[in-house]
């Protein structure tokens, strides 16, 4: 365990040698940083050349997993503490046992401490309590959270502490089942100056009777057969998607009023039930609103191959036996495919919750957190104003564009598409009248007046046009094309 005073010393040492995001960008340059993003150390090593300054030594030690002469870091006040905590080993030649990466978020600039990312095609089997660094999945989850300042926030399964670094909340609680994860998270958060209440335990045990305004989690959702060593960062000992179900239902049950739960998840696709019905069964009894997007569906073979490779088993004698055992497990559990996606749940406390389940494999405009927030906000006025929807003023989202397609020189386009250049990137082909009404929504006139005016322009019956467009217009509000004026 690295004492807090040594975390402070380490931060001073890192800052003094410019081991920061800006410092590395200047020192290493774009191709080297891009190479590290691909888990290749070569361009960064070449950028450092034979240099023997302290910043170069820090990069070699913490990022490139290379040995460093102790004399290169002789001035570091944090070294004795790092050695005592086992984070650095060796006498004349130092090696790091963890990775320390500069990391920035809207809230803080600091470092992430995790187990070392395998570099340069290294293939091996990670230790069971391996602590992942910031991964693409971590970034995806942090972008799902509706922006805003929260009161109490929970980062469930914090790992290296990456989500907690991004949460904007008065009080942050982070939990993990893995004590090593909590220790590395403590270092990440301490170095980054983000105060977090860290608690050890499974799922919601450490926060049993507490409620939260935000819960964000990238849980160990991999569905794998029992009977072999588990990698704690990716799999629990639940059957099928039982762990994700517990995360979702337990989380919904711990939301404060208007609290939001965001989950990155996998779920089982089983015979006789659609994925949406399965998740509806989990979420509807909680009484919460929900927007769930299935981003991808993998067949069992693709899924198993990904996770066998992730475990470092490709090319080993264990690969095929484990593959078959996994297939047998899926067959016995009735798992025909695996859905992967994003779950957002809000405790709105309304009598008739709004639950939306969508297949959405399309590209989105990150961060999509705002689009989830807009959906939950739209549900409220949408239901409240149902009797007089048309008397309200609406305006188009500033990121909405209209695309038209038709023969050159034609008076009217054959197709009009309203396309979101934001959020989920939805697009809708609109008829002339609907496009004209939407185009006129500038927050000034009530919707009913715009419908009447467009009916006049098109020489159409106003009542008939209203009946035709009212449902599409409601859907446009719910889907984030129109915002309250
Ligand atoms: C996929 S990692 C996510 C880490 C980090 N939050 C992120 O976004 O990258 C899942 C984390 O959940 C932790 N974990 C595994 N089983 C758990 C359980 N039953 N309760 C709480 N945390 C658990 C793992 O140790 C790991 O840190």
- What is the helix tally? 17
Radius of gyration: 26 Å
Distance between the termini: 54 Å
The description of the largest β-sheet is: 8 strands, mixed
The fraction of residues in strands falls at 15-25%
Contiguous low-pLDDT stretches (5 residues minimum) are none
- Helix/sheet category: alpha/beta
Q: Quick one: how many beta strands?
A: 19
Average pLDDT figure: 94
Bound molecules: S-adenosylmethionine
Instruction: Enumerate the strands of the largest sheet in spatial order, edge to edge or round the barrel.
Output: 8-7-6-9-10-12-11-13
**Helix proportion range:** 25-40%
Shape field:
globular
Could you walk me through the main structural features you see in this protein, from its secondary elements to its overall organization?
The protein has 17 helices and 19 strands. With 485 residues, it is α/β, with parallel strands linked by helices. The strands form five sheets. It has an eight-stranded mixed beta sheet, with helices on both faces. Strands 1-3-2 form a three-stranded antiparallel beta sheet. The chain has a three-stranded antiparallel beta sheet with strand order 18-14-19.
């Amino acid at each position: 365990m690295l004492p807090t005073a040594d975390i402070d010393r380490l931060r001073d040492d890192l800052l003094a040698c410019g081991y920061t995001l800006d410092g590395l960008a200047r020192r290493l340059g774009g191709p080297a940083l891009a190479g590290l993003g691909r888990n290749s150390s070569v361009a960064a090593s070449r950028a450092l050349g034979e240099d023997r300054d302290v910043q170069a030594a820090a990069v070699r030690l913490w990022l490139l997993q290379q040995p460093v002469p102790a004399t290169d870091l002789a001035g570091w006040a944090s070294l004795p503490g790092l050695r005592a905590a086992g984070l650095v080993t060796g006498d004349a030649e130092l090696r790091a046992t963890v990775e320390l990466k500069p990391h920035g978020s809207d809230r803080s600039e600091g470092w992430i401490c995790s187990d070392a990312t395998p570099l340069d095609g290294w293939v091996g089997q990670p230790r069971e309590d391996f602590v992942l660094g910031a991964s693409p999945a971590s970034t995806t989850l942090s972008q799902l959270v509706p922006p805003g300042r929260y009161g109490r926030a929970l980062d469930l399964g914090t790992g290296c502490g990456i989500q907690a670094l991004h949460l904007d909340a008065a009080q942050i609680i982070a939990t993990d089942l893995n004590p090593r994860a909590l220790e590395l998270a403590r270092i990440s958060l301490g170095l980054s100056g983000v105060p977090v209440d860290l608690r050890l335990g499974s799922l919601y045990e450490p926060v049993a009777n507490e409620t939260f305004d935000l819960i964000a989690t990238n849980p160990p959702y991999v569905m794998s057969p029992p009977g072999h060593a588990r990698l704690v960062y990716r799999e629990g000992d639940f059957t099928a998607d039982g762990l994700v179900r517990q995360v979702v239902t337990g989380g919904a049950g711990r939301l404060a009023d208007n609290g939001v739960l965001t989950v990155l998840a996998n779920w089982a696709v089983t015979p006789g039930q659609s994925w949406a019905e399965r998740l509806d069964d989990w979420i509807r009894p909680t009484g919460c609103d929900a927007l769930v997007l299935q981003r991808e569906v993998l067949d069992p073979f693709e899924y198993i191959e990904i996770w066998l490779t992730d475990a470092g088993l490709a090319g080993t004698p264990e690969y095929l036996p484990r593959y078959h055992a996994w297939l047998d497990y899926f067959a016995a559990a009735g798992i025909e495919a695996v859905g992967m996606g994003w779950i957002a749940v809000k405790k709105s406390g309304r009598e008739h919750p709004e639950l939306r389940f969508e297949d959405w494999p399309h590209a989105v405009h990150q961060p999509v957190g705002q689009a989830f927030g807009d959906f939950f906000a739209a549900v409220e006025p949408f239901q409240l104003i149902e009797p007089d929807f048309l008397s309200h003023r609406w305006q188009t989202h500033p990121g909405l564009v209209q695309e038209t397609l038709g023969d050159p020189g034609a008076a009217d386009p054959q197709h009009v598409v309203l396309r979101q250049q934001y959020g989920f990137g939805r697009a809708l082909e609109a008829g002339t009248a609907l496009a004209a009404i939407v185009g006129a929504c500038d927050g000034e006139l009530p919707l009913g007046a715009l419908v009447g005016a467009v009916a006049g322009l098109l020489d159409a019956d106003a009542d008939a046009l209203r009946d035709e467009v009212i449902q599409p217009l409601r859907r446009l509000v719910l889907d984030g094309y129109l915002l309250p004026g």
